[in-house]
Amino acid sequence: MDALAVNAKQARMPTWAGQVPCRYRHRCGARCGGKVPAGLDPVHLTHLECVMTFRRRDFLISLALAVLCAVVAGWAGYKMVCAAGINEQHALAERRMDIANETLEREIEKYGLLPRTAAVSPNVIDFLSRPATAEGVAEINRQLRTLNDSAGTLQTYLVDPSGRIVASSNWSEKDSFIGRDISYRPYFQNAQPGRTTGYYAVGTTGDAPGYFLASAVEDGGRRLGVVAVKLGLDQLERLWLGQPEPALMVDDNGIVVVSSVPDWKFGALRPLPAATLAHLEASQQYNHREIRTLDWKVLTTFRNGSFLVRAGTPAGTATYLAAGRPVPDLHMHMIVLSEPREVYRVAWGWAIACAALAALACALLHVLNMRRLSIRERLAMREALQASHDRLEILVEARSAELRRANEGLRREVSERIQAVKQLQSFQEELIRTENLAVIGQLSAGIAHEINQPLAALSTLSANAVRFLERNDLATVRLNLGRISDLVARMGALTGQLRSFARRSTGEIGATAVGLRVDGAVALLAHRLTKDGVVVELLPPGGVLTVLCDPVRLEQVLVNLISNAVDASSDLRVPHIQVSWGAEGESGIIRVRDNGIGLTDAVKAHLFEPFFTTKKTSGLGLGLAISADIIRGFGGALTADNNPDGGATFTITLPLAEQKETCDA
Ligand code: ADP
């Protein structure tokens, strides 16, 4: 019983039988035991608040990590592409500066020869070594102009040792240099023989900027003066002006002297200290020009030396990538600018692509991780289910063995019971036979009496028949033989009834005609009834009443009931027994009523108990107990009650049979 209940329980919830570890058990304190029911994928535990909380938290952490990775990747991509772009632009700037530097060097090299050559010219030495005459000045001026024009320089002039210009190629022009004192000019002060000294300045006469090249004139170690040439840097400016991106040259003080953006010219890239301004004023390098500070701010300096600068242009403020290099010969710095917008645009593109890739990779990792966890859980779940299944099988096997044992026990018990029932039946049969034998014993006297009479008659008739045969009275012989035959038939009927009563029942239940059984019982008891002067009144129904029972047994019951009725009423003056039968509802009813002593309460209480009898000598006390048992065996009942007018009535109730009697013999 227990095994069956457990099996039914197991069968009802197979998917909950095993458990797998919850992936969040280490984080939540595992108040639930850290396990989820097997068969229930944790992915689908949407109704569990704790699981949903951790799932949300994990998602947010993954999202934050993805954002962080995207930002870092974007930033790294941006930086790398930016650096590559800046390096590329720097390389371009370097090439531009190479070209410019080459042009400059070529120019300076070309024109640097001019003052050195002039300084060793006999005409110049001769002119400076002697006091000047008007003719000599005119002559040297012409020569200087010729030289200046053929070389393509702005001006060529001679300075005496005191710093006064004594001859000049522009002697005939309005703003002639002749007579000017340039002793304050560094190129004059620093001029050396056999070498060319360069210096950038704005002319004090014509306010024209230019590059001055000077070489000292000496004769036998005596300083006679200086030959100076003024160059325009137009060629360099022309070279840069053609370019779409600005370029400039600044002096050591950061003042722009050459620029492709005219607005920047003579502006300072940084505020100049007062001492520098005073020095500039003194040297008149920029001819008293006001040196304004340009809108120029270095934003970032890169590793390759280039830097990001924000500069004000006539069109507005712009950001440039700048690269510079010193030009030592000119004591200047060359700076070329380029638009970094394209670099930044490409870098931003790469940054977005890198960020997107990183975010995608993070999302992919998240999905793969979730899938890995899910697969691991599913495998664990499958294993748990398998383990649970195995456990269940073992349990079922154990329960089956238990059941088998219980079944064996039951079977043994059933066979024992069957054996006991059989024994009981055989015991009952024996009892019935015993009771029957008792009845037969009672009947035998009557039957013997019944048989004695025909036997005496038979003896007489047969003796008579012999005599009538000797007389040849065949008619009387035939008559006697006919009577003998009738008597034999009657005796046969009597013994047949007795045999029928005493015979063992087949136990076969079938439709039994009640009337025949009543007649049989009354016939068996006929002698006793006659002897005791009992009147038996039969009250049959209108038709034939058939009930379901064993006819032999029913007859035995009726004999028993009528015998008891005879016993109870035989002492009366007019004993009267009434046997009635008929159908009532679904049942067939047979009543045996007597007008005897009736049933006391004490008798009633034990009436159907075995071995209960009030009869001193003849009773066994089994008749009613066996009769009641027989009737119960047919699905009926045997009851007894007192009659209102005295005596008792025993009532047999049996199921009605639909067919006519078939089992009746
Ligand atoms: P037995 O006839 O051997 O005594 P029974 O079982 O047939 O055994 O009867 C039991 C007892 O029931 C009888 O001894 C008698 O006291 C009582 N009894 C049976 N039938 C009747 C009846 N018709 N009227 C009064 N008493 C009866």
TrEMBL record:
Cited CDD domains: HisKA (cd00082)
Kinase found in the keyword field: yes
Gene Ontology terms, MF aspect: ATP binding; phosphorelay sensor kinase activity
Spans traversing the lipid bilayer: 59-78, 347-368
EC class of the enzyme, as a word: transferase
Keyword Ribonucleoprotein: no
Catalyzed chemical reaction(s): ATP + protein L-histidine = ADP + protein N-phospho-L-histidine
Record-listed E.C. numbers: 2.7.13.3
Membrane topology: Multi-pass membrane protein
Domain Histidine kinase, first and last residues per copy: 446-658
Top-rank taxon, per record: Bacteria
InterPro entries xref list: dCache_1, HATPase_C_sf, HATPase_dom, His_kinase_dom, HisK_dim/P_dom, HisK_dim/P_sf, Sensor-like_sf, Sig_transdc_His_kin-like_C
Protein name, per record: C4-dicarboxylate transport sensor protein DctB
Gene source species: Azorhizobium caulinodans (strain ATCC 43989 / DSM 5975 / JCM 20966 / LMG 6465 / NBRC 14845 / NCIMB 13405 / ORS 571)
